[in-house]
Design goal:
Elements: H1 2-13, E1 18-20, H2 26-36, E2 40-43, H3 45-50, H4 54-70, E3 73-76, H5 83-88, H6 101-109, E4 115-120, E5 130-134, H7 135-147, E6 160-162, H8 168-180, E7 184-186
Parallel strand pairs: 1-4, 2-3, 6-7
Antiparallel strand pairs: 4-5
Length: 193
């Protein structure tokens, strides 16, 4: 979950629209890719290949085959991009500030109607659907929660848990944590089994 969250944050900060499926659906993948015009898939393929779950490895192989057929490239967050090593590397940590010039420029000049995130539904009522979010929706959500006092540490603005990152509430919890500068514990879905 951490690698996905970091990659999502970096891509979003760069203004790149992200498709974040709630689950892996070989049948839905083709339609999701077509509907969102995805050019590259980022995933933790090494984790699946190195794991001991043969079913997951077979599913990943099928997904890789579909991407090849659709001429969509893929990059592993670990093997290709070295994200875990980059996260562990020593670096300068800076405190975010709402007076930061870059943040102010993004908020003033950004396109609040630009699509920034596409989630999939769980498909519990039939076929999975795509849910599209715009940049302004997340900023307005954080600002309205703050104005209503919901981001006070004694309410929802303190330390938090994120039970499923690729769900709208998980992504909102993520942005609220960034907005308030509070820690957020990402719970891997595998822990629920």
């Amino acid at each position: 979950e951490l690698l996905i969250a970091v990659a999502y944050a970096a891509l979003t900060a760069a203004g790149i629209r992200v498709l974040l499926p709630m689950y892996s659906d070989p049948l839905g993948l083709r339609s999701w890719l077509a509907a969102t015009r995805v050019r590259t898939v980022l995933w933790s393929a090494r984790e699946v290949h190195d794991g001991d779950n043969e079913t997951d490895r077979l599913r990943l192989t099928g997904l890789e085959r579909q991407l090849d057929e659709l001429d969509v490239s893929s990059l592993c967050l670990c093997a290709d991009l070295g994200l875990p090593e980059r996260l562990l590397a020593a670096g300068v940590v800076s405190e975010p500030s709402s007076s930061d010039a870059r943040l102010q420029a993004l908020m003033a000049n950004g396109d609040s109607e630009a699509e920034c995130l596409v989630l999939t539904t769980a498909g519990t009522s039939g076929e999975s659907k795509l849910v599209r979010y715009r940049q302004g929706a997340f900023l307005r959500s954080c600002a309205s929660w703050e104005a209503a006092g919901m981001l006070e540490p004694s309410r929802m603005g303190g330390r938090g848990l994120c039970l499923l990152f690729s769900h709208s509430m998980g992504v909102r919890a993520f942005w609220n944590a960034i907005w308030t500068g509070q820690p957020l514990c990402l719970i891997p879905p595998e822990w629920f089994l």
